[in-house]
Amino acid sequence: MKPILSLQNISKSYGAVRALHDVSFDVPEGSVFGILGPNGSGKTTLLGIVLDVLIAGSGTYSWFDSMSPDAARRQIGALLETPNFYHYLSAFDNLEITAAIRKKGKDDRTPILKQIGLFERKDSRFQTYSLGMKQRLAIGAALLGNPKVLVLDEPTNGLDPSGIAEIRQLIRKLNKEGITIIIASHLLDEIEKVCTHVAILKKGDLLLNGPVNEVLVSEDQVEVKAADMALLQQALQKMDGIRKISGSEGTLNLTCEPSVTAVEVNEFCIKNGIVLSHLLLKKKSLETKFMELTNKG
Amino acid sequence: MKELLAIEWLKIRRFRTFWILTGLFVVLLPLWNYEISQGVIRAGGGKKGVNFLSTQYSFPEVWNNLGWWGSIFIMFISILVIIIVTQEYSYRTNRQNIMDGWKKLQFYHAKVYLVMVLSFVVTIYFFLLGVVFGRVNSGSFTGVFDEFQHTGYFFLLTLDYLGFALLIGLFIKKTGLAIGLFILYSLIIENLLRGMINHYTELPWGNLLPLQASDELFPFPLMRQARAAMMAQTPSLSMTVYACGASAWCLIYYFTCRAALLRNDW
C-alpha cells in the first residue's frame, strides 16, 4: 500500500534541546497510525512539522505522494495540542471559518455538531464550553469537509470515560470508512485498542515502527510450581518452545513461544511424572513492553 | 485577496471589541472636533478666552486640523489591530488556520489586507468629516479641494500607524504587553529618540522615525502658521520627504514581518 505520509530524516532542535533526531517512517493509507511516546518525546513536534506550523531543522516529508503542502492540509483534519478556536465566537461561527479556509461548504456543520453532541449548544460562545466540549468541537472541526486523513494529538484529553469510549468508536468507524488516522498519545491503552500501526518515540529518537501485531508482540509467560522444583526445572528445560526459565520466590517463570499454551505445559509435566501445584498464564501487557522499550538505554 | 478578506470578516464581524473601538473612533472624532469648532477650548481660560482653534475648520485648513486630531484618535484603531493580531496567538488560531490549509503568507496577507482596508475606510471617513466640517464652517464648498493632498497624507498616516501596530502585534504576541509597548513607544520613546537625533543633526532627521514621519504630515494647526513664518530660519524637511519616509516605513514593516513569519516556528 502506498504511504499517505512519508517522513525522511526529520530532525529538529530547540536551541540545545534535541526534539527530534533523524526520524523516518511511512504512514500507510487506510491505517490507524499511533505515535506513541512518553511526555516530551517529540510527538507534538513531529505533528507540528508535518502540519507546517513548525519548521524542521533538516529532513523532508510529503503528503499524498508529493501533493503541495497547503492543498494536502485541506484534505487533513487536524487537532494539535489544544482546541484552537475564536473564544468569542459560537461553535457554528467557528466552524464556518474552518470550512472557509478548507474551501468546503458550510452545510456540514449541522450534521457534525449533531454527531459530536454539541448541536444544542451550537450558538453558545466557545469560551462557555467545558474542556470536554472544546475537545469535541476540535474533533468536529477536524471532520469538516470529509477529510482523507485525521491527525489527532492526544484526542481524549479532557474527556470523561464515556467520551473516551465514544472517540474510540468514532475512530474505528471513520477508519472503516477509509479515513487514515494518525493519532499521537502517551496513553498506551488508547493506542493498543485502536491502532493498526505504531511508531514509538523516545527523547526524539524513533525506537521502532510498523504494524502493531509485529512491533508489539506480547510474549506470554507461564508461572508454574510443583513439590520438587529442581525436578520441574530439569524437565521443562527439555520442553520445546520454551525460550527462558527464570525462578523467583518458589515459582518458575517460563517465557514461551507464542504457540505454547498452558495446556501443553501441563500435559508435558504429567507425562514426565510431575504434578503441578500451580499453573498461571500471565499475559504481558503492552505497558510492560512499552516501559521496557522506552527505559532501555 | 477577496477570499482572505471574507474570512477576516467572519473573524471580526461578531467581535465586540472591534465594534466598540471603531464605534468610539467614529463617534468621538467628530464630537471632539465639533466641540472645538464651537469654542470649547479657549486660550486664556473660561468662556472669555480666545477661541483660536475654531478658526481651523474652514476650507482648506480643516484638512490639516482634522488630520492632526485624527492622528491622536487613530490610536483606537491601532489598538484594535494589535488586539486582532495578538488574540490569534493567544487562541492559537494562527496555527489552526495553517493546519486547516492556509499558507503562512496567506495568514499574514489576510492581516495586511485588513490593515489596508481599515486605512482606506478610515480615510474615507476622514474625507467625509472634512467635507461636512468645512462646508458648515466655510458656508460653501469653495476651496474644498485646496490642500486635498491631506487626504492622501491621512491614508499614509493611518497605514503607518496600523502597519506599526501590526508589526508590534506579530512580534510581541501578547496583547497587554503589545498595547503597552505601542503606547509607550508612540508617546515617550519616539519623542526621546527624536529629541536626541535632532539635537545632533543639522536637519531634523529624528522626525523621520516610524510614527513621527507621518505625524509630521499634520503639524499642529497653529504651529503650522508659525512654522511657515519661521521656515526661513529653521532648517526643516519637506512634506515630500515625510511622505516618502512614512511610505518607506510601511514597506519596512511589511518585509520585516514577512521575513520573520516565514522563518520562525508558529
**Helix segment tally of chain A:** 11
Poorly predicted parts of chain B:
none
Strand content of chain A: 25-35%
* Spatial extent as radius of gyration of chain A: 24 Å
Provide a count of the helices of chain B. 10
Main interface pair?
A-B, 30 and 27 residues
Mean pLDDT of chain A: 89
Query: How would you describe the shape of chain A?
Result: elongated
State the major sheet of chain A.
Answer: 6 strands, mixed
Overall helicity of chain A: 25-40%
Multimeric status of the protein: heterodimer
String of helices and strands of chain A: EEEHEHEHHHEHEHEEHEHEEHEH
Write down how many β-strands of chain B occur, each being a DSSP E stretch of 2 or more residues.
0
Low-confidence residue ranges of chain A? none
Gap from first CA to last CA of chain A: 34 Å
Mean pLDDT of chain B: 91
Offer a concise description of the structure.
Chain A is of the alpha/beta class.
Properties at a glance:
A: 297 residues; six-stranded mixed beta sheet; elongated; B: 266 residues; mainly alpha; globular
Description:
The complex is a heterodimer of chains A (297) and B (266). With 297 residues, chain A is α/β, with parallel strands linked by helices. Chain A contains 11 helices and 13 strands. In chain A, strands 5-6-7-3-8-9 form a 6-stranded mixed sheet, sandwiched between helices. In chain A, strands 11-12-10-13 form a 4-stranded antiparallel sheet, with helices on one face. The radius of gyration of chain A is 24 Å and the shape is elongated. Chain B is 74% helix and 0% strand. At the A-B interface, helix 2 and helix 3 of A face helix 1 and helix 4 of B.
